[in-house]
Design goal:
It is elongated and about 65 Å long. The relative contact order is 0.17. The chain has 101 residues and is mostly helical. Helices cover 89% and strands 0% of the residues.
């Protein structure tokens, strides 16, 4: 049982560096899937009639996606991912509202 803590103590620096690299990789990878998901959610919301029945939510989702695209162009992948995920969520809300009316 004492070997695990001893092993951890000997290799703590390696574990920490590996963990830091994994975290930093998330910030350096373009949010391709998130952007695609947001665009698809917006298309689905439009097809459901959100442009008429949930206009404010749809416009909010479109603005968030536009912000995400701008952040992506600037290389701010963390912000782009955040905005794309918010755009998708807002678009799904718009679609739900359009379908429920």
């Amino acid at each position: 049982m004492n070997t695990i803590p001893l092993f951890f103590k000997k290799h703590f620096k390696s574990f920490f560096l590996a963990f830091a690299l994994v975290l930093s990789a998330c910030a350096t990878v373009p949010p391709v899937q998130e952007m695609s998901d947001a665009r698809q959610a917006l298309d689905a919301a439009r097809k459901a009639g959100a442009d008429v029945r949930a206009r404010a939510d749809l416009q909010s989702a479109e603005a968030l996606l536009q912000n995400a695209e701008h952040a992506l162009q600037e290389g701010n992948y963390k912000q782009a991912r955040k905005d794309a995920e918010a755009a998708q969520s807002q678009a799904v809300m718009a679609q739900d509202k359009a379908l429920s009316e």
